[in-house]
Each structure stands twice: as C-alpha cells, then as structure tokens.
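Dear Dr. H.,

I hope your travels went smoothly. While you were away I took the liberty of generating a structure for the chain from your last submission, since the lab meeting agenda had it listed for discussion. I wanted you to have the full record in hand beforehand rather than looking at slides cold. The sequence, exactly as received, is reproduced here:
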Amino acid sequence: MPDAKKIINLENLIKGYLTDIANLRDKLRAQREMMKSTIEGDRDFSEAAAKTAELKKKETEIKQKLVKVEAVVATKMKVEQLMTELKNVQQSLSDYLNEYANLTQSTEFIGPEGELHQIVRTAKLVKKRA
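The corresponding predicted structure, in token form, is as follows:
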C-alpha cells in the first residue's frame, strides 16, 4: 500500500506544476501578443503582408482547381488511407511496447537491424469532460 504522505506530496507537486504551466502559458500569450502588435504596426511589414495575402489568394484559387483533378483526388484519398494506417500501426506498436516493457521490466528494445531503442512511456493529464 503506497504511503499516504507520499501520495499527498505527489498530488501537491502535480497541482503546483499545473498552476505553473497555466501561469507560464498566460505570460507566453501576453508576450506573443505584444510581439505581434509591434510587428503588425510596422508600415513596411503591413505592405508586405498585403502583397503576401494577394499572392496567397491566387495560390488558393489555383490549388482549388488542382484538387478537383481526378488524379489528385485519388492521390489525396490514398494519402489519407496511408495516414490512418500509419496511425493504427503506431498505436499497435505502442501497445506492444508497453506490454513488452511490463513483461520484461526493460526499457530497451533491439530493433530488426540490431539497433538499440529506448522505450519511452509518456503520460499527460487531460481535463475530464462532464
């Protein structure tokens, strides 16, 4: 049975880090906004941004025409299929690596070509939705 004091201390540490992260994100947001305001307030930047926006609009129009081409549509579908397959294979690998690490108590794995890999487990905290 885990020590209750240790759990309480760990919970307090986690809560402290959650607060620190929130504060740092707020500070970062404010600094980015200040930087953005300064840059966007510059006349030369504004002129360049307007030219860029016009070029981007033309690029988008051309791209919209191209994505309707049958070959591009087929390729896009294949890319989406491959991305889904890759995600599934990566999740399976992660599951198997966790099982391997639990069974062997090892954090290393030798790959198919003899290369040594480290098994890295990550955990993150996600707000629970009601």
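Two observations you may find useful: Residues 4-40 form the longest helix (37 residues). The chain has two domains: 1-66, 69-123.

With kind regards,
E. W.
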